[in-house]
Design brief:
4-stranded mixed sheet; 3 helices
Length: 141
């Protein structure tokens, strides 16, 4: 993997400081972070937990493509994209994206590009659990 890219899918708790530390660089004046958290409601239904499944080998390749594309499209120095798998409770973190750049706009734009593209193309599936049942969300990338 490039020295400018950190990609991870793990059942371990994601670490915001690791993502920040990876992208931090004295040449950069901006770091943008996106932290996705498990919320307690969706469409007026109370969520009890989320379960993330993935085709990990393919997901890693796709996330790496997103990171490489962000490096090509935006004036950024480094990008980290880390995603959790398995069961996450309310308030836990399923995804962290961090991006550094000389100027803030490129970091913001690359960060948004990365999360939007990840949700559209990466084979990671989310099952929402409710008190009265469960449902798969985004079942087809």
């Amino acid at each position: 993997m490039s020295e400018s890219i950190s990609v991870k899918i793990t059942a371990e708790k994601l670490n915001l400081q690791d993502c920040y530390d990876f992208v931090h660089d004295a040449s950069c004046g901006g770091i943008a972070l996106f932290v996705g958290t498990v919320r307690n409601k969706t469409k007026d239904k109370e969520v009890t937990l989320l379960d993330f499944s993935t085709y990990e080998e393919m997901a890693i390749k796709e996330i790496k493509k997103i990171a490489e594309s962000a490096l090509e499209q935006f004036d950024i120095l480094k990008i980290a994209i880390h995603h959790a798998k398995g069961i996450l409770e309310i308030g836990q973190i399923p995804v962290i994206i961090s991006v550094s750049s000389p100027h803030r706009k490129a970091s913001f734009d690359a960060c948004q590009f990365a999360i939007d593209t990840l949700k559209e193309t990466v084979p990671i599936w989310k099952k929402e659990h409710f008190a009265d049942g469960e449902v798969w969300v985004n079942s087809t990338p």
